[in-house]
Design goal:
about 240 residues, alpha/beta, Trna Endonuclease, Chain: A, domain 1, six-stranded mixed beta sheet, four-stranded mixed beta sheet, 10 strands
């Protein structure tokens, strides 16, 4: 696998003995995780490290690009227990003896990054659904629900995850992989989507929808009321003379 830095777009294949020692001793967590992908994947894949997409509030630890698509990978070393349900993220609380919503919830930020990657794929006329996200837990236990848009990969499954990625159907050819690596490295992606803020509906939106004939009846009744009111005022003025 090619490991590319953001300051240069060339393959880096040699790993020095010092780097191998660092990987073996686990001094750098991201290097250890990247090494697992490097050992399992060939040069059809490229890996970018420390990617900050335009306007994004979250840096992506690693972006993997290859024939099966694009994976935004986030490395988590917390030894806790986590689960996701839809866009909600929970952490196990021993005192409560149950899962409680994690604060802050990381999933919206991860999904914003995923939306940016899918936006670029759409403009490049490539399959947008091949951009996905995953949280890689090096110590913790994670459970993801079937409706969670972000994959949760716990420590026991981490070593097999690169092979799982490679087993996916090929949707990007070599040229598309290179285009994606260049675009991501240079920040040539659309801005993150604006998140909708829940607010009360305007009063006008709560008004009932009436048919034309119903509006006509209401108008006639309103005109009749005006006539009656006008007649009553005239009678009062006449009697007051």
């Amino acid at each position: 696998m090619r490991s590319l830095g953001l300051d240069q777009l060339r393959a880096v294949r040699e790993i020095s003995r010092a780097a191998e020692t660092t990987l073996a001793t686990g001094d750098d967590l991201l290097d250890r995780v990247a090494f697992q992908f490097d050992a399992a994947l060939d040069d059809a894949y490229g890996l970018l490290r420390g990617v900050a997409l335009p306007g994004s509030a979250t840096t992506i630890d690693m972006v993997l690009v290859g024939p099966p698509g694009i994976w935004a990978l986030y490395v988590e070393s917390d030894p806790g227990q986590f689960k996701a349900d839809g866009e909600e993220f929970y952490a196990w609380d021993s005192q409560a003896a149950g899962y409680l919503p994690a604060q802050p919830n990381p999933l919206p930020y991860l999904l914003d990054n995923q939306a940016q990657l899918r936006g670029w794929l759409r403009t490049a006329r490539l399959p947008r659904d091949c951009a996905r996200s995953a949280i890689l837990f090096t110590e913790g236990v994670a459970v993801g629900s079937s409706n969670s848009p972000v994959a949760l990969v716990d420590a026991d499954r981490l070593s097999a995850f690169p092979a799982e990625v490679a087993s996916g159907p090929a949707v990007l050819d070599g040229a598309a992989v290179e285009r994606a690596l260049v675009a991501i490295a240079h920040g040539e992606l659309p801005p993150p989507p604006r998140r909708r803020v829940k607010s009360a509906r305007p009063i006008a939106s709560r008004l009932p929808v009436l048919l034309p004939w119903q509006w006509a009846v209401l108008g006639s009744l309103a005109l009749l009321n005006l006539c009656v009111l006008g007649g009553a005022c005239a009678l009062i003025l006449y009697l007051a003379r």
